[in-house]
Amino acid sequence: MAVTDAVARIHAAFADAGVTGRLHALDIDSGGQLDAGADQPVPTASVHKLCVLVALHEQAAAGLLDLTERVECPPAGRTPGPTGVAAMLDAARLSLRDLAYLMMAVSDNAAADLLLRRVGLDAVNATTARLGLPRTLAVHSFGDLLATVREDAGPDGARALADPRVITRLRALDPARTNRSTPREMTRLLAAVWRDEACTPEHGAAMRRIMGLQVWPHRLASGFPFDDVHVAGKTGSLPTLRNEVGVVEYPDGGRYAVAVFTRTAHTAATLPVADTVIGTAARIAVDALRAARLRSR
Question: Which of 44, 52, 110, 178 is the most buried (most CB within 10 A)?
């Protein structure tokens, strides 16, 4: 399948699913790539937790912190969320590396902000700048991001998020006013992690392990339902927004970084077709890159 044909198929898949989609796919070893709106700025939502993870391991590699360091997680003041420490009721005490696991595997907002408090927002941005990602920027913590959603929704709270007029005023969905990146920069970051360019090999392996433990199978992984194909990723979700970035690894050694960012006009929190198209588009892109690699041999 030619790359140009694949791009057309990806746009058609997005249209059939009722989403606006941006995608970049990269063959980590050959450098082959596929661009479907790859340089458009996008709100990252929880995908930005990947940047926190890399900054955390960069500081650990430099001896600025110990990943076994214990952090107190009192229930008062926790960043809200439906998973992990954010959903727990009692005090907890966890290591930095276990908080990182919760942040990545189940997208725990409270764990992410505890790590961000330890690492620092400026350090996260310094890490992405060092890696050559000038359009990837953390503007606020995940708690502050959620606070903008509550403020913009107004007195009706979560109920207001079913109103498309309310959705249009959410700062969290405006890449000029929230944590942001582009699909191309996200695949560049993933490639740096998989090539051990973001950190030492020891810390690169730790990051790849954590990303491989993500529990959500309904987006990127849905496009690769094979026992011998490994998918490691990080999702991101906000009202009308569904994202995932990750790496797909084949038994023949092929490694493909994929970043998919979507928006839909539907305000429903549960919209399976919008989740599944992330895997569909990623599979089309990876198949095209694999075919191009075979033709070049």
Answer: 44
